[in-house]
Amino acid sequence: MSEFEPKIVGFFCNWCTFTAADLAGTSRLSYPPNIKIIRVMCSGMVDPKYVIKAFLNGVDGVLIGGCWPGDCHYINGNLKARRRVAMLTEILKQYGIDERRFWLRWIAASEGNMLQEVVNEMTDKLIKLGPSPLNKSHKADLVLDS
Amino acid sequence: MSERIGFYICHCGINIAYRVRVKEVAEYAATFPNVAVSRDYLFMCSDPGQELIEKDIKEYNLTRVVVASCSPRMHEKTFRAACQRAGLNPYYAFHMVCVREHGSWVTENEDKATKKARILVRAGLKRVSYQDSLIPSKFSVNSNTIVVGGGIAGMQASLDIASSGFKAYLIEKQPTVGGHMLQYDKTFPTLDCAACIGTPKMVAVAQEKNVELMTYAEVEHVSGFVGNFKVTVNKKARYIKSNCTGCGDCAKVCPVEMPNEWDVNTKMRKAIYISFPQAVPVRYVIDKRTTSPCKTSCPAQTNVQGYVQMVKAGNYQQALNIIMERLPLPGVLGRVCPHPCETDCRRALIDSPVSIRDLKRFAADNGKFEDVPKPEVKEIDKHIAVIGSGPAGLTVAYYLRLKGFKVTIFEGMEKPGGMLRTGIPDYRLPPVILDKEINNILSTGIELKTNTFLGKDFTLTSLKEQGFDAVFLGIGAHVPVPMNIENEDAFGVVDAVPFLRRENLENAGSAKKHVVVIGGGNVAMDAARVAIRSGAETVSIVYRRTEKEMPADHEEIKGAKEEGIEFITLVGPKKVITENNKVIGIECIKNELGPSDKSGRRRPVPIENSEYIIHCNMIIPAIGQKVETAPVIKDTNIKLTSWGTFNVNPVTMQTSEPGVFAAGDSVTGPATVIEAIAGGHKAVKAIERYLNNKMELFEQEKEQENREQQISNQEKQDFLPIPEDINIVERGKPVFIEPDARKNSFNEVDLGLDETSAQKDALKCLNCGGCCECKLCVDQCKAEAIDHNVKDEKQIIDAGSIIIATGFDPLNPSPMKQYGYGKYTNVFTNLEFERLSNATGPTSGKFLKRDLNDPMKFTDPPKSVAILHCIGSRDINYHEYCSRTCCMYALKYAHLLKDKCGHDTIVYNFYIDMRCFGKGYEEFFKKVQEEGVKMIRGKAGSITQDSNGILTVTAEDTLSARMLSIEVEMVILCTAMEPRSNAEEVMRKFGIGIGADGFFQEEHPKLAPVSTPSSGVFLAGACQGPKDIPDTVAQAKGAAAECLALSAKGEVEVPPMISYIDPDICVGCQVCIGLCPYSAIEYNEFKNVSEVNSAVCKGCGSCAGHCPSGAAKVRHFTDKQIFAEIDGLLLN
User: Fold this and answer.
1) Residue among A19, A28, A84 minimizing CB distance to B105
2) Residue B377 has what DSSP assignment?
3) Considering the entire predicted model, what is its pTM?
4) Quick check: A78 contacting B, CB < 8 Å?
């Protein structure tokens, strides 16, 4: 399993975590390439079905990045995300998706270094956890490389 | 028509290409279906790059375009515009993939970076085909601009906006505009005086008709969006109207002193003040804080702080005037009040509470009742009957009379005063005092009928027949409560109430030789102490719990003990022992303390077989009183409580019989004088309203109060802080007559404070509430500009743009113990030094050392000074950033010291690096060096002070690599500029961001230095980062230009990425309505669906994230688009 490269999808709020990712880039803070970012306007718009869809497609981890409580650009979208994530985690568990694969983190626009830390940590932990049970084709990336 | 996609990947010079094999990615993209053209190019954002896209769109009939380059936050707009120019709808056609910030710059390995880019591109190519045409909505722009912060940045921006003909609202928290710049003296490097260049700006913002200046005001709430903001401003009550001439007569008489914030507490100001002489507007302001605890804890809400201040000032008449506003019996309360105010006095946090009761008595004894101003009474033809002339009745009579009502008091006894006369012994309250105060009350024109008893001589019905319009019952509680023990009615058992009444009125000397008093309250103490004065040889107090639980006042217990009264505690009476129906003793049982009862006191539990007999020949039970209600309520609807007191509405004191009010002991049961007066005040208010048919005002006030309560619960207490260097002062000791001398006489025991100790005690007052509301200023103001009853006012302003110019806070160096700030007298901060230098500061512009014993006093100029750079800046323990101004103002200080204190003054600068980067700065550095200032390259490590106040600065001279210890007389700490302490709150209000350093984050560090992520909100000055004045002014002008651009265009495009609800799918469950933070969704009952109001929606997607049917979607972030992106990332 040493060559296992987990696939991570990040749903990042445009105002904070997405900007933090830009800042990590400008500050040249490197992190594993496993994460691929999808830009959303607010963590509160992340529909549970996006997360389910990603897991069904074989993703090994999903990271939702929102603003710190109280700092939401849209007043309280992040708090709605927090409630939704709590519920969704329970549902995913029942279908065999380990809760350690589904993260919600508050990362402010100025916290590029925190983004780097979170991605490093998540990638490390997912490597240890191994592929998601729904990841039938984690070798597919290797095929792409050839 | 099948899709034809154009794909472009940017090299970004080498920024992308050095990690991502761009050609390989382009080739990979070309293999995708529908990709008509795939290219890589050196700089896609350049003009040729954009032209390339436009040309391809036309040549290849492209329907979609994907660009892989930097972050969409950077150039999405650029490429959208290119697509639009070529005739495509930009939202339909264009998608951007980030392979620089999220790719090449964060991935170390070329293979991995290329692979990541391929996957991201794959997702982008899939997504783009699902995008829809969108047209941004256009809104008109309100041409007003809100400028928050009245420092040099805010003033400059406002003036620039005003000069273009648009309107600026300048909102400043402080009572004056000016900001930090106006606190300074000279400005580097040109040394022009800050006031000379700053005050014209201040005057200009006040005079310019297009600037609406709002000082002492704060933004409370912001709603709306670019071009259409609604800003709620709270204009704090200034208590001074705009016709204030700034003459300053009010401040001369104000007794309350506090440190002046403008002078960074190096100087005192009054509670009514202007910050500095050139303040704009030149309009005084009264500093009122949370109401002081002495006033709030007084049941009658007496303005305690006010009269204490008046005693301090020696104005005893005004002190009495203030007391009389709420208390008709000042001398009485000054003697007998249990002073809950002293319990809550914050001075007790330092040493002991102010002797408030003694000061009240002092004022009452030294002021003149006839000089207390009384309002001009306009006779009102309404007649009120007040039954009972105790404290409640007297209060009601006096204050109703002052309002012009006709009042008649009916008193059953021979003389007025109620319990004050019959219950309180003369040695505590001399009758002459009581008579004087009652006569003063009656002198207002109140009719008194004594020896007229309710139930005997008249009834409530007869009063009505006589034409009285309202009745107040203040009949007190005079009926003894029985002990319910055997032989209670024996000869020699006399209850305290009749005993005291007889002794007080007749001086009967009725006490027997050996007296036992039962009870532990004030009445028991009075009875015991009276007994010893009326012939008893021994007096014992029997109480069933311990002394700790006794409800009597501490002073009374102490007084009784001093007079030789024996305290027998943990003992309960069981039976009176008689011989020929005469008392010869009392059988008692010993108690122990059990668990607590409802009052929180531990319940006494009798110990079996512990009975014993105390021999005596008189027993005075003092265990309580009740109200004699029977003659009152006969033939009326007046209801009673289960305690046998009148049942009244607690707000209006009205009984169940309309027009009949009650207060005092007859409502509360036996209680204190001050509580009776408090109840009386409530009744006064209610009777007046009753007679004017305005009782409904109470309901309205209740709602108002509930609302205010909610607000005030949120607010923190804002008492004037306790000064740090406060001395412990012992409580003033009143003069007492020696116990042996007083035991045989009814002369007053407590002679009160003398003038010196009264003033000394009043000086202890901390002025918790700021302004003490003595209202001396009101009398003094010839313009009649002062109104103490003003309240905060809210104003809602419509504006199209907002400039935030809230400035910085100077760092407080106190936590840096090594520099001894706050401990060593002559260690100054830069801002304190600026105030010394300033002509309006504490030393009128002279550089003087502080007195070692009194930091508010200044002595002589220093002969040597050390200036320490980088205090809290460039320091990983505090702020990593450079504060950018310190090097230069440190040089300025060096120059000014040489200039003002003479060239022989030795000035050292301890610096890390000299940063003299601006125009003329390096030249200034050179000039100062030539003046002989000693420059030492090394940050000072510590300061110590010897007993003469000489300071030793220790530092490493890094140029000669040796340690230096230098003795100086004064040290100046050049402290860092910090973000404002409330920066986070401001951030949330305006929806902007904060950077890692705590300052507000600009949208782009280079290209958008005054913009924020919130469109229409701009930054100016030091709130965005440390800045000197030229940079601040430049940025302010930039921010003004941004606002003017919006206003001049008059129209703004709002991104079309907002929600919509598909009416074909919506089931009308309305869950989205509760989720929407902007109330943008409404339910259409006719169509049975929810609908989005597109003018209000901001596109957060709270609705879309939840909608159970999938009807709510955010345009440009639809399920199909996101799913396609997920597919692209995860599938092959």
Assistant:
1) A28
2) P
3) 0.83
4) no
ipTM of the complex as predicted: 0.94
Cα–Cα distances (Å) from B984 to A14, A15, A113, B575, B755, in that order, read 20, 16, 20, 72, 51
B window 47-106, beta carbon within 8 A of A: 71-74, 98, 100-103, 105-106
To test the contact with chain A by mutation, choose from B28, B96, B101, B107 the residue with the greatest count of A C-beta atoms within 10 A, namely B101
Is B595 in the A-facing interface, judged by CB distances under 8 Å? no
Q: Which residue has the higher pLDDT, B885 or B1054?
A: B885
Amino acid at B294: C
Omega prior to B498 cis, within 30 of 0: no
pLDDT tens digit sequence for A14-53: 999 999 999 999 999 999 999 999 999 999 999 999 999 9
Does the N-terminal peptide bond of residue B189 adopt cis geometry, omega within 30 degrees of 0? yes
CA-closest candidate to residue B868, choices B902, B926, B827? B827
pLDDT in tens, B1074-1085: 999 888 899 999
Judge: A47–B1001 Cβ closer than 8 Å, yes or no. Answer: no
Asked if the Cβ–Cβ distance from B1130 to A7 is below 8 Å, we say yes
Structure tokens at B418: 């109620």
Which one, of B910, B873, B905, lies nearest residue B890 by Cα? B910
Q: Are B410 and B449 in contact (CB under 8 A)?
A: yes
Band of residue B767 on the pLDDT scale cut at 50, 70, 90: very high
d(CA A105, nearest CA chain B) in Å: 18
What is chain A's pLDDT, residue by residue, as a tens digit (146 residues)?
Answer: 457 999 999 999 999 999 999 999 999 999 999 999 999 999 999 999 999 999 999 999 999 999 998 888 888 899 999 999 999 999 999 999 999 999 999 999 889 999 999 999 999 999 999 999 998 865 544 444 43
Are the C-beta atoms of residues B165 and B195 closer than 8 Å to each other?
A: no
Residue B704 has pLDDT above 90, yes or no: no
* Helices vs. strands in chain A: H and E counts, helices first: 5, 4
Answer yes or no: do A36 and B123 touch at CB < 8 A: yes
* 3-state secondary structure string across A49-104: HHHHHHHHCCCCEEEEEECCCCCCCCCCHHHHHHHHHHHHHHHHHHCCCCHHHEEE
DSSP string, B866-892: EEEEEESSS-TTS--S--SSHHHHHHH
Q: Is some CB atom of chain B closer than 8 A to the CB atom of A74?
A: yes
Nearest to B362 by CA among B320, B328, B321, B415: B320
Which residues are registered as beta bridge partners of B967?
A: B952
Cα–Cα dist B605/B548, whole Å: 16
Over residues B398-446, the pLDDT tens digits come to 999 999 999 999 999 999 999 999 999 999 999 999 999 999 999 999 9
Mutation target vs B (from A47, A120, A141; most B CBs, 10 A cutoff): A47
CATH code of the region A8-129: 3.40.50.960
Mean pLDDT score, B377-387? 92
Candidates A14, A37, A45, A53, partner chain B, best to mutate (most B CBs within 10 A): A45
B1037: which 2 tokens?
A: 């002008």
CB contact under 8 A, B1132 and A140: yes
CA-based nearest residue to B7, from B121, B169, B151, B131: B121
Question: B1029-1049 vs B152-163: helix axis angle to the nearest 10?
Answer: 30
- Contact between B131 and B1116 under an 8 Å Cβ cutoff? The reply is yes
What is the structure's pLDDT at B246?
92
- pLDDT, tens digit (0-9, with 9 covering 90-100), for B609-619: 999 999 999 99
| SS3 sequence of B283-311 | CCEECECCCCHHHHHCCCCCCHHHHHHHH
Place of tokens 């003469």: B948
H-helix segments, B208-277? 249-253
